[in-house]
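sry for the spam today, last one i promise. struct tokens for design, 452 residues
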């Protein structure tokens, strides 16, 4: 067989379908409203949902960040307004209050989850898991200055009906939003700055400045909002080097070089005087409990989140049967967060919603147990957590002779139900003990010899 024939052979492999029974039941957990969205969607689709939340009342999930934005953004209010009532009144949702996940083990279709409710531990079985947690807001170390607050602090201080901050009686007259301090590509801050800026400008005549490295408006209707902001006189600057922030005679002064209208080689030096407050984009970090759960399931993070690793699969994780929303995915503006949560719930429904699931066992990896050295390379690198070491194999060629006749040996085993056939274990196995069923090593080598 030549190289071309080897490649053409792949689509012609006769599928070997295995039908797996999957109970239509999932656990949804977290302290982020996205957990409610996923639970609501799955319950409406006939899935039995156990909702694990750390609060006494579901309304506590609507944190100040959301409450403040809800009054500014009617579309957010529409989505979240009746969500708690729907979830609470759905007989398909069992709510465990004052509860949190302790441990997760198992596979898609057969997860075992330890839950702590109050001071009592219990063990639940589930076919799938949906998680949505809030990130911990952390103000960047620089610039730190009196009068500089992050979004969360500003929203908690802002009387949205009067436009005042803290105990001040007069509306804020000048405000600057400082974005992209830590150079992370997060859209929520751009959207929040424009929406809050428009609200302050329209209702109180506040002069609003937005400083950013790159304004991100790829959210529904945000290009129109951006245009309105410019038309109303909200001034947007771009910077490369962080501004200097100092106390002025009447308020706060910001000094920086603007690169939006001129070349980077000849930036325009700008001074903003007499600012009432500066609102800075905070960072978000994953909580320790959440990081512990993700590590248990061998789900890797990038800069603390799952989204950057899987941008084309919204809400999915590399582990089949586990989906995420909220800040567990990536910090998002609430309207974007709704889309992510619904996409995650739809993905989970595909896996557990029909009671059975079909897989093609010809499209997976296979271990030759007689060659396996139990070096754990495949176990460590499998992105789908599909490999375990079991005592099932034939005699391992690396084991010393003299053992009793008929003994079985530890060797890697691929769980076909969760294997995606990516071939990573095949390429990394030092003993060459793993092959893709539909594309054996000899055909791969022949193809390479013919085409390289």
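last one done:
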């Amino acid at each position: 067989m030549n190289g071309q024939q080897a490649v053409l052979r792949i689509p012609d492999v006769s599928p070997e379908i295995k039908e797996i029974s999957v109970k239509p039941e999932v656990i949804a957990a977290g302290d982020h409203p996205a957990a409610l969205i996923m639970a609501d969607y799955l319950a409406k689709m006939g899935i039995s949902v156990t909702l694990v939340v750390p609060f006494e009342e579901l309304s506590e999930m609507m944190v100040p960040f959301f409450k403040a934005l809800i009054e500014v953004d009617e579309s957010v209010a529409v989505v979240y307004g009746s969500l708690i009532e729907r979830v609470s009144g759905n007989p398909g949702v069992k709510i465990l209050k004052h509860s949190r996940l302790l441990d997760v083990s198992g596979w898609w279709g057969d997860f075992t989850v330890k839950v702590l409710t109050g001071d009592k531990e219990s063990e639940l079985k589930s076919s799938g898991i949906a998680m949505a947690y809030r990130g911990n807001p952390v103000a960047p170390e620089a610039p730190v200055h009196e009068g500089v607050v992050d979004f969360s602090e500003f929203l908690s201080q802002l009387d949205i009906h009067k436009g005042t901050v803290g105990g001040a009686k007069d509306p804020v007259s000048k405000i600057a939003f400082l974005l992209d301090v830590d150079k992370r590509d997060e859209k929520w801050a751009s959207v929040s700055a424009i929406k809050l800026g428009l609200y302050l400008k329209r209702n109180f005549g506040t002069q609003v400045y937005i400083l950013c490295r790159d304004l991100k408006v790829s959210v529904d209707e945000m290009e129109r909002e951006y245009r309105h902001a410019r038309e109303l006189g909200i001034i947007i600057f771009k910077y490369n080097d962080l501004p200097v922030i100092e106390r002025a005679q009447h308020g706060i002064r910001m000094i920086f070089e603007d690169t939006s209208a001129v070349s980077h080689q000849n930036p325009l030096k700008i001074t903003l005087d007499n600012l009432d407050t500066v609102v800075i984009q905070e960072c978000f970090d994953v909580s320790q409990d959440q990081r512990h759960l993700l590590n248990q399931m061998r789900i890797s993070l990038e800069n603390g989140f799952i989204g950057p690793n899987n941008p084309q699969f919204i809400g999915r994780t590399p582990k089949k049967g586990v989906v995420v929303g909220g800040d567990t995915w990536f910090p998002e503006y609430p309207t974007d967060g709704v889309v992510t949560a619904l996409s995650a719930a739809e993905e989970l429904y595909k896996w557990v919603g029909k009671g059975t699931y079909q897989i093609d066992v010809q499209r997976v990896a296979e271990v030759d147990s007689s060659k396996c050295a139990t070096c754990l390379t495949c176990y460590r690198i499998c992105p789908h957590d599909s490999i375990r070491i079991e005592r099932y194999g034939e005699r391992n060629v690396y084991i010393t002779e003299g053992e009793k006749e008929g003994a079985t040996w530890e060797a890697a085993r691929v769980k076909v139900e969760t294997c995606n056939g990516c071939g990573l274990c095949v390429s990394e196995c030092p003993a060459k003990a793993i092959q893709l069923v539909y594309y054996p090593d000899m055909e791969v080598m022949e193809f390479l010899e013919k085409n390289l």
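The longest strand covers residues 99-107. ok im logging off now
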